[in-house]
Amino acid sequence: MLIRTRTRADLPSSEITPEPVYRSRREFMRLAGAGTLGAAAGSLVAGCEAGTSAAQAALPPAKKSPLSTNDRPHTWEQITGYNNYYEFGTGKSDPAQYAHRLTVKPWTVKVDGLVTKPGDYGVEDLVDFNQLEERVYRLRCVEAWSMVIPWSGVPLSAVLNKVGPQPGAKFVEFTTAVRPDEMPFLDSAGIDFPYIEGLRMDEAMHPLTTMVVGLYGKVLPNQNGAPLRVLIPWKYGFKSGKSVVRIRLTDQQPLNTWQKMQPSEYGFYANVNPNVDHPRWSQKDERVIGGLLTRRNTEMFNGYGDQVAGLYSGMDLTRQY
């Protein structure tokens, strides 16, 4: 089902992404046609060490997902320069400054718990690069700001199906990297690490839920969660763990990081809900990054209600937040 057009959410024309950001994809095609692509297509993390550079390595061409929103994407500079990634600082520009320290090649993801094929996987083993999709999703932060981002990835369900969930698996838990020598703010961020998040199995298997490896057709920059992050567009952004190193399937609801740290403010579900205010600010509207004084009303489930509301039938979303 196509997500409906939300014309009132369109960004100003000054924020329309310029065509040159897609040059990397065209260059990929040119090299492929010339037979000079070499190993570039075979390595997920080629070039990732330069995590803050706009010259990220190109990914194989991705097909446009029919699940994409029609909102106009933000620019590369906005998306890579304004981030939450506390391991690299609590300021919005800190991750772009410090995340280049993260070594993302090689990268191993431990898959365990209630799966039929547990083990340590390379990212290329989990993500089929011949099946990449460009998924243009709105990202809504619990701090009441939003962006529209063209991610490259595959459905999380495709990744989970590779490892074979056992019948008793009810939840998926994600653990992110902890690298004291590379993450300078682990001791001062004010939260416990590693960062842990989780989803119900039906949320994880929903077609909108994405395992992300890229941005604008390029390898995912470090500050945006390289080399592998989760994206659940109807939930607040903190639900989408960056730089994932472990995927565990379990029959118990995971205790996610923010729920553990501040249970009066953060629950397990983190669904975008304008009717449930954060204790310290309203969630009824949001600031569009890059638009001077641009605010808009927050949509239930971040505008994806037609697709996901059925997951929560019968639940009281003012209590199960």
Fold topology:
Elements: H1 23-34, E1 63-64, H2 76-81, H3 94-98, E2 108-113, E3 119-122, H4 123-126, E4 133-141, E5 145-155, H5 156-163, E6 171-176, E7 196-200, H6 201-204, E8 210-215, E9 218-219, E10 229-231, E11 244-250, H7 257-261, E12 285-288, E13 295-297, H8 305-308
Parallel strand pairs: 1-4, 2-11, 5-12
Antiparallel strand pairs: 2-3, 4-5, 5-8, 6-7, 6-11, 8-9, 8-10, 12-13
Secondary-structure element string: HEHHEEHEEHEEHEEEEHEEH
The fraction of residues assigned to DSSP E strands is 15-25%
Question: How far do the termini sit from each other?
Answer: 26 Å
Radius of gyration: 19 Å
Q: How many β-strand runs?
A: 13
Oligomer: single chain
- Total domain units: 1
The CATH topology is what?
A: Sulfite Oxidase, Chain A, domain 2
**CA-based shape:** globular
- Helix vs. strand class: alpha+beta
The level of helicity is 10-25%
Largest sheet: 8 strands, mixed
Q: Output the CATH class name.
A: Alpha Beta
Q: Supply the CATH architecture.
A: Alpha-Beta Complex
Mean pLDDT: 86
- Given the structure, what is the number of helices? 8
